[in-house]
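[recover] target loaded
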């Protein structure tokens, strides 16, 4: 049996504090977009369970709001360069693969498979 050291406990507490702060800030961003009518209040899921990774997870349906939401979320990572926010496509039609983006302080990794999207959304970019 291995006991946790004080350093381990401090690291866990520090992680929990950052996770909660990022969760609250991301929730505010999403609520702003919902308030503006760009996404519906029930259209997103901010995963409210901390799995211990330096990652905050969100699920969103396919919409034109992804790029502006991603940019706003990227801003909250400025003070936490080791953290990431993932957005996964929610409510995928039958037969669509899993897909999404990973947001870090300095880049957005795009793993959206646009060949499945309606023509109107295939040009969606995160520049």
């Amino acid at each position: 049996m291995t006991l946790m050291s004080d350093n381990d406990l401090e690291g866990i507490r520090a992680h929990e504090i950052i996770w909660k702060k990022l969760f609250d800030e991301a929730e505010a961003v999403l609520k702003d977009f919902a308030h503006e009518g760009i996404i519906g209040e029930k259209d997103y899921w901010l995963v409210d369970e901390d799995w211990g990774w330096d990652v905050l997870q969100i699920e969103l349906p396919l919409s034109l709001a992804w790029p502006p939401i991603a940019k706003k979320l990227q801003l909250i990572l400025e003070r936490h360069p080791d953290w990431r926010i993932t957005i996964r496509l929610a409510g995928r039609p039958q037969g669509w693969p899993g897909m999404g983006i990973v947001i870090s302080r300095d880049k957005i990794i795009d793993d959206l498979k646009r060949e499945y999207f309606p023509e109107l959304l295939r040009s969606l970019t995160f520049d």
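[recover] notes: The CA atoms of residues 38 and 98 lie 23 Å apart.
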